[in-house]
Amino acid sequence: MREREALWRAAAEAAAQGAEAALATVARRRGSLPMASDAKMLVRPDGFRAGTIGGGCLEADVTGQALESVRTGRPAVVRHTLNADVAGDLGLSCGGTVELFVEPVIGGPAAASLYGAVADAIAGRRAGAVFTAVDWTGGPRKAARVEDRVHQLGPWGVVPVVPVVPAVAVDTDLCVEPLVRRPRLLIFGAGHVGCEIARAAAGTDFHVVVVDDREEFANRDRLPSAEEVRVADLRRALDGLVLDGDDYVIVCTRGHAMDALVVERTAASPARYVGMLGSRRKREVIWHALERAGVPRPALERVKVPIGEAIGADTPAEIGIAVLAELIRVRRQPG
Fold it and tell me: Do 137 and 195 lie in a common domain?
């Protein structure tokens, strides 16, 4: 279970049990700060936490403010500034300003259903958004839209059909948190390197799918962290495959012919990244054969070979780390 999904599951559990808990979500950040732009955490008075907003003294302060929202029963927007003097005192090299939306977890079965629906959306790679009213004077108001289904607490007019912002946004009336589909990482080949790439990706936000035609390689014992493990003839698996702009493809099968098949079927796809394990010599041999088979050279030129950041990786585990580093770099680049 990935971190963001686990956080919403924890919120659903707290709501179902009527346990005190609070959420803190980064809404705006400026400068160099020790947190992701989409950072979020859940905290409880007993010290339990799910997710993080960066750790350290800032997280301790925000934890207190989030739990204060449980006492008041209302959300709040809190602001923290880490200036050069404060950063220096703490031994940090960063500095900037962050605004966070803190809110109590709402109790009861309806709220548990809403939080659970968000967790299900994240797990199922379904898009949507969570809307939370800033003013709870008349009681909690929260809604989640996942595709065409709406879950809501409290009085609402018309819940917006689609997310209206690419990232969390808060104004005087509303906090909007889009649910963006997790990118899918498709690894064709469950050999040593394929397994290590899947293992390295487990701590990131990729939805990992491993495909191989050998059950002794493609199984849960070897690939416990993958969301999907498919044992299938590669040609048949490719026949039913639809790739989108948030897909990443790694080709590392056990043979040149199978590698060529996967590249042939994915090179011209909308996938954000297609890469093949191997040397430049291997690339030229396969590219020559694929061009003769009618695959356009421009489609082949977009396929990355060799794959991975140039860190001198040698072992399968090191190659897995190098490949994941490259995938993260591509993912974080605009466009």
Answer: no
At 155-178, the pLDDT tens digits run: 887 777 666 677 888 888 999 999
* Contact (CB, 8 A) for 82 and 96: yes
Strands 40-43 and 22-32: antiparallel
Evaluate whether 243 touches 270 at the Cβ level (below 8 Å): yes
Q: How many domains does the chain have?
A: 2
Say if residue 173 is in the same domain as residue 271.
Answer: no
Q: Report phi then psi at 32, rounded to 5.
A: -100, 105
Which domain, by its residues, includes 189? 184-332
Q: Where are the beta strands (DSSP E) in the chain?
A: 22-32, 40-43, 49-52, 76-82, 95-104, 128-133, 142-146, 149-153, 169-170, 174-179, 184-188, 207-212, 228-231, 247-251, 273-276
* 78 neighbors 65 (Cβ within 8 angstroms): yes
Q: In what order do the strands lie in the sheet with 76-82?
A: 49-52, 40-43, 22-32, 95-104, 76-82
**Token output for 166:** 């690419």
pTM confidence score? 0.85
- Taking the C-alpha atoms of residue 227 and residue 126, their distance in angstroms, rounded to an integer, is 15
Query: What are the residue ranges of helices labelled H in 124-272?
Result: 192-201, 234-239, 256-266
Length of the chain counted residue by residue? 335
Name the DSSP letter for residue 317.
Answer: H
